Amino acid sequence: MSQPVKATRTERTKRTPSSGGGESAGSRRAAAQRLSMRRKLAAAAMELFATQGYEATTVDEIAATAGVARRTFFRHFRSKEEAIFPDHDDTLVRAAAVLDAAPPHENPLDTVCRGIKEVMRMYAASPGVSVERYRLTREVPALREREIASVARYERLFTRYLLGHFDEGAHHDGDDDPLLAEVAASAVVTAHNHVLRRWLRAGGQGDLESQLDHAFAIVRETFGSGIGGRPAVAGGRPAAAVSASEKDEVVVMVARTDAPLTEVMRTIKEALQR
């Protein structure tokens, strides 16, 4: 399978090094204690949201239920809606670490698919908590907005990574490689979220990872050899898929949330081939 982007060894997205083997035992203990407290506060918040409602719950009550002071709560979260997502910051770091440690010749799209599996593992680690959190986010608009903001962080991370594997100096009019990076990153996130929502609606039952692998296979089939099966030119770069007069066009697609992923990806591919 040819790469959907042109990999370069010199252009890599620079990120702050993630926690890894070089950190001290003390740092690891501190990180573990931080995550433990965040999860404790999150459990208290979810309990109160479920029993007395989101609007009626205060930060003071969350802190008291967790057995800590109000100031401790604000050392870990900026608001009560942020409190039921304790793992996203750490998961984002782990996903970035997967990208940073990618083998030099790995297809960047494959790397991104491996990276987002860190998010899947976060949810799969506690199915009961994940299902309850999903129920709450469906019922409370503020929590839903917080969830959307968290998803956007992953999408930006993966888009930056794919863009970091383009030779920007080689771009020319009609070259839509940057568009390919953004669409491909969005497709990976969309595939992940589609499978995850289906798993959550099923009560956290089923083999989530195998379902995700199937969804990623569809994404690779769609984008793996270039959008619309664009022919390659000398040097392996894909040819432009649109003419100069069309290069500023934008394709917008609307799909039902319960639409089959195969149908969504087929529709996107057909639209981009026109």
3D structure, described in words:
The chain is mostly helical and 274 residues long. It is 59% helix and 0% strand. It contains ten helices and no strands. 31% of the residues are buried.
Alpha-beta content class: mainly alpha
Alpha-carbon distance between the two ends = 23 Å
Q: Mean pLDDT score, rounded?
A: 76
Uncertain runs are 1-21, 167-172, 225-248
From the spread of the alpha carbons, the general shape counts as globular
Instruction: Report the major sheet.
Output: none
Q: What string, H for helix and E for strand, traces the elements in order?
A: HHHHHHHHHH
What share of the residues lie within helices? 55-70%
Instruction: Tally the helices.
Output: 10
Beta-strand proportion = under 5%
The number of E-state strands comes to: 0
Q: What is the radius of gyration computed over CA atoms, rounded to a whole number of angstroms?
A: 21 Å
